[in-house]
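Give me structure tokens for this 135-residue protein.
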Amino acid sequence: MLTLANLVKKGYLPRELIPPLTTEKLSDSLDSNSLYLTNIKGYRGSSKCGYFSIPRLKEFRRILEIPHPLFQLKLSETIAKNWSEIDEYFSRSAISLSRPIVKKDSDRAIDSFTLVSAKKSIIKINPKYFNNRKE
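Here you go.
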């Protein structure tokens, strides 16, 4: 089952960040701060993401955006409360090749499960599309 603590601990920060940056303490303190989060309903402010730059090949860098913790916690709380409905919605899709799944032993809170056999059948139907597309 998907919980708020699991979403914050394994799903808040991008996996590409360096290991010292974690959200374990934040997820451990959620029980004591949950009353605080419910009292911020009238907050109308906005926030900007924090940026973290990761070196890539040659001169290129990858820019990661890290959302403000308050807004991420409110979003995570909504996802955790409504996960059964979200999962049911994705499982009914007839056109999607992947869907979000929760695994207990994963390093992420939500993984993407790809339907490989469906992709292979689409490639067999129209291989020219996949060979000529520009990325």
